[in-house]
Amino acid sequence: MREAFHDQLDSIFIDLSGIARQVQEAVAQATEALLEGSAEIAEQVISNDVKIDLARERVEDQTFSLLSLQQPVAGDLRTLVAALRMVSDLERMGDLAVHVAKIARLRVPERAVPEDVEPTIRKMAMVAELMTGKVADIIADRDVAAAADLHEVDEKMDQLRRKSFRELLGANWTHGIEPAVDLALLGRYYERIADHAVSVADRVHYVVTGELASTDA
Amino acid sequence: MREAFHDQLDSIFIDLSGIARQVQEAVAQATEALLEGSAEIAEQVISNDVKIDLARERVEDQTFSLLSLQQPVAGDLRTLVAALRMVSDLERMGDLAVHVAKIARLRVPERAVPEDVEPTIRKMAMVAELMTGKVADIIADRDVAAAADLHEVDEKMDQLRRKSFRELLGANWTHGIEPAVDLALLGRYYERIADHAVSVADRVHYVVTGELASTDA
């Protein structure tokens, strides 16, 4: 009975890791749509989001049924509740990728990001995608050390966000209002993807150790 | 035993409603800081946020202990899991009020919002505060009808956000980049407060009826 329970728990974590991979793909594609100015790829991100939503529902259903049929306590209860929160973070990351794709789509056939500030937003996008990929591994391997490392990567994101603000508010900005507003929002979306990635990693830490991550205050 | 359980469940909902009131106050004060350009009020919102975080922890602890000691099934289980999600939405709304306050503080002694576009952002702020207040009542009264109404109020928010974009991207915009970026982000923060309010209301609907709100797909 308990063994079957832990098999089901493992299966939920495999699903969570799979959702993180789907989100990573969504982030990568949204960035491609943004930097290439591709409506087609943007549409793909937007229409694929329903798959992430469905995968979320499946994990929620499985988790609820384990909660209600097995009535777990202590560590197992903590793990199931953490799974519900992780899937909610992951789904939100998918939504944020959709927001990026929608800005890309809005500006087609132009590209939303002016060439001279593309390096910064490209780096933010790469960090967001990297963090999402790491999250997939962290969930699959219950890798507490890698979960802790994610906080450092997130600092890189914060630095890039500040740099992006300096660029668009600087005296050299010649692109007018619309690209500035797009960049501010894009920066916010990538930053939030990173925040949710850290949150998922912290929950893995909590599941494995029973303790809140030190920076999770 | 079951009666004690339901007393404890009621007590959790009273706490949730209380947190919603704290958040409503935070939203109101953040808006005041923003529109008056008051660093003092902004600081107050920022430092008060720790109280919301602590209140969240208390609700989480209570909910966990009920989950683990009482091992509820069906409706009671659903209610407790919903409580965990509601408190997470509410805390996030508090964080968003802090983001508004931080933009206010950044621009002191100036005001972040130019006078001619203040009416739109003021309306967004009022809608966000109104929705947060309604959420406090909806939780306290398990008011499913009012929860459904919140979707309509949220449409008002979406209209205002679009109006705000038209203003700051319009040909008449004379305020330069920084206020445009501030307004875009402020609009985003108020819109997200409203989204979370709808999410909390939908969870009340779910707790009471056992069914997902129709627009909660």
UniProtKB/TrEMBL annotation, chains A, B:
Recorded GO CC terms: cytoplasm
Source taxon at top rank: Bacteria
Compartment(s) where it occurs, according to its Swiss-Prot or TrEMBL record: Cytoplasm
GO process terms (BP): intracellular phosphate ion homeostasis; negative regulation of phosphate metabolic process; phosphate ion transport
Pfam families in alphabetical order: PhoU
NCBIfam families: phoU_full (TIGR02135)
Subunit note: Homodimer.
Task of the protein: Plays a role in the regulation of phosphate uptake.
Protein family (similarity comment): Belongs to the PhoU family.
Protein name: Phosphate-specific transport system accessory protein PhoU
Organism placement in taxonomy: Bacteria, Bacillati, Actinomycetota, Actinomycetes, Propionibacteriales
